[in-house]
Amino acid sequence: MARAPGGPARPGVAAGIRRARRYCYLYGEAEAEVRPAAVHRARAMDLSDQWIRAGCQPDSPLLPLEHAALVRSYAALLAAVHH
Asked: What's the DSSP call for residue 29?
């Protein structure tokens, strides 16, 4: 499903929920605590998929968006597990 860079997530919401449940199991935290990390991670995966479909261009505007989503994911996960 094509969309503009930075546009709304596709089934990334469902992927975020599944990942949040996985994080609950892995880190022993409540789903509400790890959900932001999971949603950002799912968003990064969506952006990566878009980048691949677009031909993996090294100067793609999708790459900074993916990077930012990953950083937000890692920061949110760290905050959730070290409170």
From this structure: -
